Amino acid sequence: MEKSKKPILEHIVDFLDYCEVERGLSSKTQENYNHYLKKFSTWLSSKNRQGLLPADFTAQDVWDYRLYLSRHQDKAGKSLSKLTQNYYLIALRALLGYFVAKDIVSLPPEKVTLPKDADKEKTIKFLNLEQIQKLLDAPDATNPSGLRDKVILEALFSTGLRIAELIALNKEQFDFSSDKKDFELSVIGKGSRARTVYFSERALEWLKKYLNTRKDKQKALFINYRGRTKEENRLTSRSIERMMKKYSIKAGIPLFTTPHTLRHSYATDLLEQGVDLRTIQEFLGHKNIVTTQIYTHVTNKRLRDIHRQFHSGKNLK
Asked: What digits encode the pLDDT tens for the residues 160-178?
């Protein structure tokens, strides 16, 4: 182990490179780490400690940072939720884990503990099938961009793809030479893990219509129709998020709807149809079943309803 003479803040770029090269984390995860560590940088700056070295960072500093997060308020006077505070602490813990991996003297990452009850605030937001239908019907599929948007929504709900996985798709991955009514595709997801996703007959029909309109030579499956002069005009995640917000308003469904909401809705629908959690874990590409267990809200509700219907004690004298 060696004592680094470089301040913690100057290690953050190296940490993000480490996340990409050695841990194989997605660009979105790196972006999140960078975002959450900016709050840590702001805190150090507020204390005039920008030059703090890894070896000099203490458990007391962790406590002071947690107090800062707990008391922090935005311009509207709103405090950070316990869950959001956790995200900032998880990023800090990952940075300390990087120091351990690189044999740099620092505070052990386990010294950054997380509140045990923070997960209680985490609720899964999803759409019911009626809301899903309204969203899928919102785009005007008679024009190129509307047809593209229709296919994006159909694909997200059919496959449970993450947005980063969706925008990475290329036209060449779709071979419709056979007459199959559905289609399966291998994708590389989070942590460079491969899994198979499945396009329903409905999603596949819309995808075929869309590809029949594509006469350009771009390889991306979903492109931005603005700025056609670019060689690579792949649609971005931000563009898709804005698109979904627009159609959510048009469809009159909850404004919390995002691409990940459709992933939650996909998993929730599978659970409601009786699919077990282990299978859903495979569909979603979760490394750990614990991650998939966030969807047990559906199972728990169904069990409660069954108990209320069949074992409420109404037949007792």
From this structure: 999 999 999 999 999 877 6
93 Ramachandran zone, left/alpha/beta (phi>0; psi -120 to 50): alpha
Residue 67 has pLDDT above 50, yes or no: yes
Phi and psi of 185, rounded to 5°?
-145, 140
Q: CB–CB of 77/89 below 8 Å?
A: no
Cβ–Cβ under 8 Å, residues 277 and 292: yes
Phi, psi of 184 (to 5 degrees): -120, 150
Structure pTM?
0.62
Q: Is 226 a catalytic residue?
A: no
Annotated catalytic residue 162:
yes
Q: Which overall architecture, per CATH, does domain 8-117 show?
A: Orthogonal Bundle (1.10)
Q: Which amino acid, residue 198?
A: Y
Please say if 18 is a catalytic residue.
no
202 is known as an active-site residue = no
Strands 194-199 and 183-188: antiparallel
Q: Which of 49, 250, 260, 297 is catalytic?
A: 260
Hey, where are the domains in the chain? Answer: 8-117, 129-306
CA distance 60 to 29: 28
Q: How far is CA 188 from the centre of its chain?
A: 15
Please say if 286 is a catalytic residue: yes
- 130: amino acid identity, one letter: E
Residue 306 to residue 273: CA distance in whole angstroms: 15
